Structures are given as structure tokens and as C-alpha cells.
Backbone:
């Protein structure tokens, strides 16, 4: 119980709403909140559900410590402080399993509980999903663009230090092979990787000395950074230092395609035919795709990964859709929501290709008993019941495999990098 | 000492470089690393230094616990593990004080120490600066656009839960009045604010019931959200519930300028002449500027703030510039750096308007003894000496005031929102 609480990752208005609802007797009304994206980021074909494992873990730590409560004395009244002191989420959570695809309107997460129990989770749930889904969705496109070549996630330095750990997790979920982030290695068991920085070369009297030192410390299978001075000389020095069994060279600047071809030729001439070529330096999914014909063995991706490649937040919202069994929704503008609890299924062709996302009203139930066609798959799964985590939710390895499988089912246009419509349409037969 | 360590917010290659440098005897070479931005985000006129206080605090926790070291057994050799076990930063840090402006090439932070001591801080320093500077730089433009109207930071839900706390801090530094984020309130003493969500209205049997409940719980000075159903009816219900002394109404959707005018007229007709109008809903600096002529009293800003309004990372790098008194720099490509320790001064007109950023070589010293012209101001200040924090660094209130003053000195073109060149040029007389 020494783990820090997550209760204060909350917007003030959630607690003042609880205060008012406790006072007027509506705090205990049975509510259903739904987390979903109204649309995908501009031109994207699919979204990737990510953050589920992190949210479920954070939910177990959603508590208010004595220090937290002291800080809240100026925010809410004593009755609300008492309520917060005893807070434990006792409701239910259903949702798309982590690694599943989502589309506009997909009910990615559904939280069932009293108003007060469920409304306080709004900010935490949205923070985790909006960040992690944005990163995983961008990462999946990069993995597709890399067409099987392994990718190293190395964007930690371009984002908040804790967001970096979550980004490494989302990238691994999406198929990245490794991360440079040591905290992600420790926390989630993600394989870590790394090469060397230009600083290491510059520290030494010359490039040869730096390469000899690195090989002595890390073995010949290491990756030597060859673009500090002259790349051609750098490659010659690298093979001289490590022998033709050198693991890899990394090039971090310049015209990467041209440099990769030259490096391959030179390495082959030197007998280093198995030495791999690692490219890095402002790569995004488009740059990666443009390198497909080049002799590249792996990519290091940083900035574009951790910033969601132009879409740093997923645009998820958390909306109250049902109160005491009655559908509710905002009605004043274009930002409307469909009221009522919903569930969803994905419809496939007999060949296994996805055809459409069916989001349907599930009033009075959770959709588990929905009659499914032979090629339909129900999407939400139960994750929390009465505040207790269900077994088998939240595994990162499962999520990684689930996404790999799901992407195989996407119609081929849906895997294009170019801007377009969602890969499959969302239909709302009765929602 | 129960605070969690920050040692693992580090890329793997930093530790393997330390391992190689410990083995070859270069780990103790006297090094200078410089943190700077090669350029500002596309079209931006200035950057805002932010994150200094967070970095200095994180530096005091840069340690490797037994659990951390266990996780690193597969990464580095036993000698390096021993070195990490005893790690304490014992070097010096100089830098631009938090809240100062920066321009391309400004030496925002300079870390002096042995190679091993200083290289391991690379990722942590960059993560904090790249995130916090990006947010503060965007926030400052929004504050300028708001022209004195108070701004509420409410973007927590659009970014990682810990990044949200740092974003609230950066926004406050940049002049935002309040944040919705309760953790930021507790951790940094930032004033918190909030209104109510549409969920609170929908929870109740009707809008009147919701408004009466909120006023009963929070008083007539509260802010009522009036756009759940019909805004005109919402405003009438709001004044009916709270009386003409109602604090504020919030409008979160629709044509905000038109709605603000209508709302002001209606409120005035109802005698609620002092009731404020709060606008929110996908506002960025351009939208805020476009509302300058409208009867708006304050703005709530979310997504665009926490994503840096198109520039979610500041593009800072951390480069080795000096080894044992010798300038060093990468030389293979356009991504060159200027070698050697540098300092900087800002030159002003007698009127107090900034003219240029002068980044000069400070080999053999730190620039403190640089002869200054009558309108020059030396920018870096000492922050850490021999691993010990200097007094008076890292205050958020000071940073807020510093930025306010600095923006007054920017030439008027530099405060324009439109894309253009940096507000003042950076010159490198000898660097």
C-alpha cells in the first residue's frame, strides 16, 4: 500500500459535482458512462485501443490519502471529504480489450456505477486513453510501413518523463521490437536496446579509440554510430575495430536512403555482409515507407512516435449515457452523443476481412446475449465486476498479439498511410 | 527518502556508454554538455524556458535503488552497477532561469561534470525541458491573445496523467490564472478552478434541478454550464436558480462569439450585469484572438494547450561541447553544433526593447566576468554547484513574474501570432 494514489489525477469539477450530488441525493443514481472517440484524427483509417492495462492498474490505486484530503479541504465540504476518504470503485467496467481496433463511435470503455463512483474516474480514464491510444495508433502505422523490419522506440527525450514510459509501452503493444527507455524495461518487461551517442565518440581522442572502447565493453555484436565525422571513414573504422562480425552500424543524419545503399556496399566489400544497418533521425511512417526498397535492417524512431505523428491526443470523451435505465444525451449542438448503454460487434466476411463496426443499444443488458451472425464478433469484454478486476485482462503480451491479428483483418485500403475514410464504417442500427 | 528515484528515466545507451567509459578510463574526463534548441517550432517568435524547477527537483532524486540495479543487471557489468549504486551528481549546472525567453542556439542549460556524471542526465533533462518548454511557449501566446482576460487550464484529460500536472505548471508559469488539475494544486500550489460537466445536468431530472443543486452546494458565485439543451433557456434557468448575483455561465459549444454576444444581452436584460461569461471548447490562441471584441470574461483551454498548439515538443538537444577544455562537435552533416562552452547575454535598446541574443564562447570560464554593455543582461545563472542546489532557483512564482517582464521587452512584431522569424536574432560573435 505504499504505491502512490491516483485520486488527484482528477479535475476539480468532478469533486464539486460529487459534493452537489451527495447533497441533493442524486449521487447514488445508477449511471452508465461511455468512453469513445467521435472521430479518428484527420485522415486516419483506424485507432488502436491502448492504456487498458494502465487504467485497470491505476484504478486499484484510485484513493485519497490524508495528505490528498488535506489539500481538498478548500475544494469540497466535510461530507464529501468523508466520502472521498472511503472511496473504492465498486462498479463495473466493460470495454474493448487492449490492442483491439476502434472506429468512430466504438464504445471503447463503459463504466457502470453510481454517479459519484463513476464520474470521478473521468479525467484519469481520459488521460490514459487519450495518450496511449494516440501513441499506439501512430506506432501501428509505422510498424506497417516498416514491413517486418524491427523498430526501436527511442523517443523518451521528446516527451514528459512519465509519458515516455507509457509511450514505450504503447509502441511495444503496436509491434515495436524494443525501447531505449529503462523504466519501461523495468516496469513492463519490454526489451531494451541502445547504441551510442555522438557524445561517446567526441569524448574520445578519435573515432577509432571510441569504437575500440565500445567493442571491448559491449562485444562485437554492438551497434557503432558511424556519422560523427565522415561516414565512409566511420564504417571503415567500425569494421576495423570489431572485425567483419560487427553487429550493426547506425546512421542518424543525412540522406538516409542514399547513405544506407553506400553503407551496404561498403560493408559487403569489407566482408561485413551480416552487419546490419540501423537508421534513425526524424523518421516517421512516411519516411519509413519511403525507405522500403533500401538495404535497411532496422529503424530507430523518436519524436514522431511520442507525439502521435501529428495527432498527439486521441480525442476520446467520457459521456454520461444512461441514468436509472433512462438514456440521456446533450442536445444543443453538433457535439451530440447517442444516449443509452451500447455494445458493439464487428462483422467480417467469410474470408476474415472486417466489413463494419455495429454499435447497438444494449439497454437493460450488456450485449453478452446478443445473437451473433456466423461472422460476427462481440467486441467488449467484462473487465471489472463489483470493483474487482476480472482475471486475464490487461496483459501487454496479449494486447500485442491481438493487434497483430486485428490488423490482418483490416481491408487493404485501411492499411494505406494516405489520408482517407475509416477502414470500415460504423453503423448504429438502433443506438 | 521514500520519494521514488528518477534514475531509470534514462535511455539504455547512456548507461552502456558509462560502462565503456569506465572501462577505458575516459569516464572521468571533464565535460560540458549544453541543452539548446537549434530552431524554434515552425513560425514561432520565441520560446519560454520551463521545467527548470522540475529538473532541479528530479536531480535530487536521481538515484538507483536496489530494485533499479537488479533490473540493470542484464544491461551493464558489475563495475558499472557499483558506480550507479553510489551515483550522486556532483557537478555544476548553469542555465537560463525559468520563465526567461530563449531563441535558436540559446544555451538554456549547461551541465559541467565528468563524462559519466553528466551523460546520464541527458534523457531526464531533455524530457522535462522538451515537454515543459513546449507547453509554456504555447501557453504564453494564448495569454497574449487573451489580452488580460483570465484563462483556466483544463487540458488534463487530453494528455498523459503526469504530463497533465506538468502542463498545468507550465501554463501557470506562462500566465494562466488557474488549473482544473487537483494534483497540480496540491503539488505546486496552483489555484484550482472548475465549473460542472454536462453529465451533472443530465444526471438530474431537468436543468432547473441541476442548477438549483449546484447553487445550493457551491453558492451563487458558481459557474453554471448552460449549453446542455437550449442555451437561451439555460441562461434563463441559471439566473432563476442563482438570482442576478450568479457568478458566471459557461458555454462549451457552438459559435462562441455569437453566443457570447447573445448571452451578454440576455444576462443584462435579466439584471445579471455582473455575471461573467466563460467560453471553452477547442480554443487555441487564434480562436482566442478572434474573440477579442466579444463580451467574454474568461477562457477555458484544454487540448491545444497540453499539445503545445501544434508543437508538442520543443526540439531541445543535449550535446557534448567540451572535453578537458577542448571544444568538440559533430561534423558530418547539417546537424552541426558549435563546440565549446558558451554563455549568452541579451542586448536591449535604452528603451528596454530587446535587440539581439548574443551567444559567445566562454572557454575557461562561465561568462560571469564578461564585460557587459550598459544595456546588456547576462542570461545564465548558477543553479547547482558541486551537486548542491543554489538558493533561490526553481521558484514557480519567480518564473511567472520573470516571463511577464520578459515579454514586455519583446519587439512588438515578436508578439504577433502569425508565423515569422524569431523576435530577435541570435548572433554568435566567437562561438
Residues:
Amino acid at each position: 500500500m505504499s504505491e502512490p494514489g491516483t485520486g488527484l489525477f482528477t479535475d476539480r469539477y468532478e469533486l464539486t459535482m460529487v459534493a452537489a450530488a451527495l447533497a441533493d441525493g442524486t449521487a447514488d443514481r445508477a449511471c452508465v458512462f461511455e468512453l469513445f472517440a467521435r472521430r479518428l484524427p484527420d485522415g486516419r483509417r483506424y485507432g488502436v485501443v491502448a492504456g487498458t492495462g494502465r487504467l485497470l492498474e491505476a484504478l486499484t490505486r484510485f484513493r485519497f490519502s490524508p495528505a490528498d484530503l488535506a489539500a481538498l479541504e478548500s475544494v469540497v465540504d466535510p461530507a464529501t471529504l468523508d466520502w472521498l476518504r472511503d472511496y473504492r470503485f465498486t462498479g463495473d467496467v466493460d470495454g474493448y480489450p487492449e490492442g483491439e481496433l476502434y472506429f468512430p463511435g466504438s464504445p471503447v470503455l463503459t463504466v457502470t456505477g453510481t454517479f459519484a463512483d463513476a464520474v470521478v474516474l473521468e479525467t484519469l480514464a481520459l488521460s490514459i486513453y487519450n495518450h496511449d491510444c494516440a501513441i499506439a495508433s501512430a506506432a501501428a502505422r509505422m510498424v506497417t510501413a516498416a514491413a517486418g523490419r524491427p523498430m526501436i522506440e527511442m523517443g523518451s527525450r521528446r516527451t514528459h518523463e512519465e509519458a515516455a514510459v507509457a509511450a514505450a509501452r504503447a509502441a511495444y503493444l503496436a509491434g515495436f521490437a524494443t525501447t531505449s527507455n529503462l523504466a519501461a524495461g523495468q516496469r513492463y518487461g519490454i526489451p531494451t536496446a541502445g547504441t551510442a551517442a555522438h557524445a561517446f565518440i567526441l569524448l574520445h581522442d578519435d573515432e577509432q579509440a571510441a569504437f575500440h572502447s565500445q567493442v571491448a565493453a559491449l562485444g562485437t555484436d554492438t551497434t557503432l554510430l558511424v556519422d560523427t565525422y565522415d561516414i565512409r571513414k566511420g564504417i571503415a573504422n567500425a569494421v576495423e575495430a570489431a572485425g567483419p562480425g560487427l553487429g550493426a552500424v547506425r546512421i542518424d543524419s543525412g540522406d538516409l536512403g542514399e547513405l544506407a545503399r553506400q553503407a551496404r556496399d561498403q560493408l559487403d566489400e569489407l566482408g561485413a555482409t551480416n552487419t546490419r544497418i540501423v537508421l534513425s533521425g526524424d523518421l516517421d511512417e512516411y519516411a519509413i515507407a519511403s525507405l522500403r526498397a533500401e538495404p535497411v535492417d532496422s529503424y530507430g524512431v523518436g519524436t514522431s512516435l511520442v507525439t502521435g505523428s501529428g495527432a498527439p491526443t486521441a480525442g476520446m470523451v467520457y459521456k454520461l449515457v444512461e441514468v436509472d435505465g433512462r438514456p440521456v444525451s446533450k442536445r444543443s449542438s453538433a457535439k451530440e452523443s447517442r444516449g443509452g448503454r451500447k455494445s458493439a460487434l464487428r462483422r467480417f466476411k467469410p474470408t476474415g476481412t472486417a466489413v463494419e463496426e455495429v454499435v447497438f443499444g444494449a439497454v437493460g443488458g450488456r450485449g453478452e446475449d446478443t445473437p451473433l451472425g456466423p461472422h460476427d464478433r462481440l467486441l467488449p469484454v467484462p473487465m471489472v465486476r463489483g470493483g474487482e478486476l476480472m482475471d486475464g485482462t490487461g496483459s501487454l503480451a496479449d494486447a500485442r498479439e491481438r493487434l497483430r491479428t486485428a490488423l490482418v483483418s483490416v481491408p487493404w485500403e485501411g492499411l494505406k498511410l494516405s489520408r482517407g475514410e475509416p477502414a470500415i464504417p460504423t453503423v448504429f442500427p438502433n443506438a
Notes: Residues 124 and 400 of chain B are 23 Å apart (CA to CA). The first strand of chain B starts at residue 30 and ends at 37. The mean pLDDT of chain B is 95.
